Task: inverse folding
C-alpha cells in the first residue's frame, strides 16, 4: 500500500544501488505511473458496453476511466473517426502503489495455470506491459452483476518506471515482487 513507497525508499533502492553499481541513490529506478488500457468489444454496436467496462475499471482502480475515440475511420470494421471504442486509466501516487501491491499480491496468484509473467514484455526504456484476458480475477468484480459477454473482455496494464533500460527495469520489478517466469 502506501508503505510500498516507504519499502522502495528504505530497502529496495539501497539494494539496487549496490547490485547495479549506481552511485547516486536518486538515480535508482522507481515507479512513475501505471496505465490500464482496454479496447471495448462491440462498442460501436452497443453503447452501454463502454459504461459496463468503465464501471469495472472504476471498481478495480478506484478512479474513473477516460473514454478513448478512434483516430481514423476503418470501413471494414464499420468504424468512423471519433467513435468511442476504448477506455484508459492512468494511476499515480497512492492509487498507483495500492494498485501495484494488489496486482502482485492478490491478482496474479489468482490466475489459472500461473507460472509467472513473461520476461520479454519490457520495452527499451524499462517499462513493463502485461496483458490480462478477463476482469473477474480482481476481487472487486462481482461476476454475477457483470454482463457475461464482457467477462472475457481483455485489457493491458503498463507499468512505467524510471529504469531507463530492460535490465534495470527487470531488476527493479523483481525486487518489488513481480513473479517472473523461471
Result:
Amino acid at each position: 500500500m502506501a508503505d510500498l513507497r516507504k519499502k522502495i525508499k528504505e530497502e529496495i533502492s539501497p539494494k539496487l544501488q549496490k547490485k547495479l553499481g549506481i552511485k547516486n541513490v536518486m538515480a535508482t529506478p522507481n515507479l512513475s505511473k501505471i496505465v490500464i488500457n482496454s479496447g471495448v468489444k462491440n462498442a460501436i454496436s452497443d453503447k452501454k458496453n463502454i459504461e459496463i467496462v468503465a464501471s469495472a475499471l472504476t471498481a478495480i482502480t478506484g478512479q474513473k476511466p477516460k473514454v478513448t475515440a478512434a483516430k481514423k475511420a476503418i470501413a471494414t470494421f464499420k468504424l468512423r473517426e471519433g467513435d468511442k471504442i476504448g477506455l484508459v486509466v492512468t494511476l499515480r501516487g497512492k492509487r498507483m502503489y495500492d494498485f501495484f501491491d494488489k496486482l502482485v499480491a492478490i491478482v496474479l496468484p489468482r490466475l489459472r495455470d500461473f507460472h509467472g509473467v513473461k520476461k520479454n514484455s519490457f520495452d527499451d526504456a524499462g517499462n513493463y506491459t502485461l496483458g490480462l484476458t478477463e476482469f473477474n480475477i480482481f476481487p472487486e468484480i462481482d461476476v454475477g452483476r457483470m454482463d457475461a459477454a464482457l467477462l472475457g473482455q481483455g485489457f493491458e496494464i503498463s507499468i512505467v518506471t524510471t529504469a531507463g533500460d530492460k535490465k534495470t527495469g527487470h531488476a527493479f520489478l523483481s525486487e518489488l515482487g513481480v513473479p517472473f517466469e523461471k
